[in-house]
Design brief:
406 residues, alpha/beta, 27% helix
Length: 406
């Protein structure tokens, strides 16, 4: 089937009532430059396979599935993917989902984030996008924040084009996990992007202070100087492989904070997102019971994600628009338990892509399916109606309701 976009016509494929349009270019960008509109094409462009991910050095850090280095390319990574359930059945709510990976790794084009099963289960449209990572996305050059600029452009592309794919541009939810949730918060806080969506899903995302997941310009400049010293060559001409390898070496094993972060005060991160009024957004926020085991911490460690989620929910309640809060308790085998990222195979429901991950080791599809069904139903209900289900209660200090998936 064919769809006309702002850049040209694309051909997707329909399978079991879900139309998939994959690897659609939404922008192009030179190194250390803002994204610009992609050149239009004539005729029909096949959108039958996901495009390459952004350059990165870590291809599936545990407990994530492993992906291939060959899936990366600097010049053609800015692509978007759309899965639309029953595309001819009228406008449907949209989930624009942003992958995590500490701003260093991952990709909306990766098999583990394919949105077909979620779109089918929820009767929604699922969108994923790539954005520049590591030094190529967040080195402090001319203001930095290139990865965030990519996401601003991808969200605008979605708003402008999603109706042609059967989505409702007035019912967009921006969601994300880990750094992807940080990105969602940034988009909520920017005056140009916040009118483009009305709901936000944040998974294992929020610390109590945004300073811990962003940098001020002086900190960013110091990181750049250190990177250039280690690189030993021109940042504008060095190979992308060399760039991401040096960046990865700046984050020793067991270190949580990445070497490059979004820079506060630089577009599009103009204000501290945790000080901005978000009372016009419906919010669903959650964390995993044992977040810290991914980072070598003991079982039961869920800070700072738990503290940050509760703090945001408390602020929303005070503003008169309470958020919905959950904790993901399903346990993988030791040493992971309910670790950071444990909810991802349950969100996307694509078993084959997660088969080799330790998150699902020792359990069968049949054993996991009830949790998959419950999680997908809650997310889809939130995307459609602004609440995860009639059996959920908004979080308030007087009634601090937290839903548990287990």
């Amino acid at each position: 089937m064919k769809v006309a976009t702002s850049s040209g016509t694309v051909r997707g494929q329909l399978r079991d009532e879900v139309a998939a349009f994959l690897g659609i270019p939404f922008a192009q960008a030179d190194r250390f430059a803002a994204p610009r509109p992609v050149e239009s094409w004539t005729g029909v462009r096949d959108a039958l396979a996901c495009g390459p991910a952004a350059p990165q050095a870590n291809f599936g850090p545990p407990p994530m599935p492993v992906w291939s280095e060959g899936t990366c390319d600097e010049n053609s990574c800015l692509t978007i993917n759309v899965w639309s359930s029953n595309p001819d059945s009228g406008p449907k709510p949209v989930l624009f989902w942003i992958h995590g990976g500490a701003w260093l790794t991952g990709g909306g084009s990766l098999p583990c984030y394919q949105g077909e099963e979620l779109a089918r289960a929820g009767g929604i449209v699922v969108v994923t996008a790539n954005y520049r990572l590591s030094a190529l996305g967040f080195l402090y050059v001319d203001g930095g924040n290139f990865g965030l600029l990519d996401l601003v452009t991808a969200l605008r592309w979605t708003y402008d084009n999603i109706a042609a794919f059967g989505g409702d541009p007035n019912l967009i939810t921006v969601g994300g996990q880990s750094a992807g949730g940080h990105a969602a918060l940034c988009l909520m806080s920017n005056p140009e992007t916040r009118p483009l969506f009305r709901r936000a899903l944040m998974q294992s995302s929020l610390p109590p202070s945004f300073d811990s997941i962003s940098a001020d310009p002086q900190e960013a400049l110091e990181s750049r100087r250190r990177f250039e010293d280690l690189l030993g060559e021109d940042i504008r001409t060095a190979s992308w492989r060399r760039m991401v390898d040096v960046a990865a070496s700046m984050r020793p094993a067991g270190t949580i904070t990445p070497p490059f972060l979004p820079v506060r005060g630089q577009y599009p991160l103009l204000a501290d997102p945790l000080t901005v009024d978000h009372s016009d957004f419906d919010i669903l926020i959650g964390w995993a019971k044992d977040e810290g085991t991914m980072f070598g911490q003991p079982r039961g460690s869920s800070q700072p994600a738990e503290e940050g989620a509760v703090a945001l929910a408390t602020r929303q309640a005070a503003a008169g628009h309470p958020a919905f809060v959950y904790r993901f308790d399903w346990e993988a085998p030791p040493p992971w338990y309910s670790t950071h990222c444990v909810d991802l195979p349950f969100l996307f429901g694509n078993d084959a892509a997660w088969a080799m991950s330790p998150i699902v080791a020792g359990s069968t599809t049949a054993e996991r399916q009830p949790v998959v069904n419950a999680y997908q139903a809650a997310i889809s209900h939130f995307v459609r109606y602004g609440n995860p289900g009639h059996d959920w209660t908004p979080y308030t200090p007087d009634n601090p309701f937290i839903h548990h998936f287990k």
